[in-house]
């Protein structure tokens, strides 16, 4: 797996493959998936983090089941655009996907899967405000917010792929 630019993705994803969006948190990993046309992101699951190997195995299973061709991982940044301390953890997680992938069940050819980091500033806050406006209970919000944040991150990347003008 290699870190790539979002503009590289259309040439790296094979027909019939989707992208996996990841909102990597300290306790939960939000997961979203795109359609095969790389147009729409849908929230999939919120994985409660356990051990790194188990987390990567769970992601590998999704990669195989959903015909995933690449990853869009939310990159936390400060409001001034600079990386923050959490960004280091996200980069370490991305490296772990690469280093531990084969041992954790990723399919053959995984080394060619692109990884794109996508600015996730305000993604969780924006999703939470939307859920509150829709009068979703706090308990229900806590169950869906991470996978919805992953979908928000992935949708931003998909919009960029379809319309370079919206890329930041």
Spell out the key features of this protein:
5 helices, 168 residues, six-stranded mixed beta sheet, alpha/beta, 6 strands, single chain
Shape: globular
SS-derived structural category = alpha/beta
Poorly predicted spans: none
Strand order of the largest sheet: 1-6-5-2-3-4
Largest sheet: 6 strands, mixed
Explain what this protein looks like in three dimensions.
The chain has 168 residues and is of the alpha/beta class. The chain has helices at residues 9-12, 52-65, 85-99, 123-133, 138-162; strands at residues 2-3, 18-24, 28-34, 41-48, 68-75, 114-119. A six-stranded mixed β-sheet has the order 1-6-5-2-3-4, with helices on both faces. Strand 5, helix 3 and strand 6 (114-119) form a beta-alpha-beta unit. The two termini are 23 Å apart. The relative contact order is 0.24.
């Amino acid at each position: 797996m290699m870190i790539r630019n979002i503009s590289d993705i259309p040439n790296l994803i094979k027909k019939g493959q989707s992208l996996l969006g990841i909102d990597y948190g300290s306790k939960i990993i939000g997961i979203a998936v795109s359609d095969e046309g790389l147009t729409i992101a849908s929230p999939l699951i919120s994985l409660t983090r356990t051990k790194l190997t188990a987390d990567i195995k769970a992601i590998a299973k999704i990669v195989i089941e959903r015909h995933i061709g690449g990853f869009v991982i939310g990159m936390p940044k400060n409001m001034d655009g600079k990386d923050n301390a959490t960004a280091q953890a996200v980069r370490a997680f991305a490296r772990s996907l690469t280093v531990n992938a084969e041992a954790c069940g990723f399919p053959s050819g995984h080394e060619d899967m692109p990884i794109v980091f996508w600015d996730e500033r305000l993604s969780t806050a924006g999703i939470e405000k939307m859920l509150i406006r829709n009068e979703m209970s706090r308990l229900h919000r806590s169950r869906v917010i991470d996978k919805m944040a992953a979908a928000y991150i992935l949708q931003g990347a998909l919009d960029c792929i379809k319309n370079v003008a919206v890329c930041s």
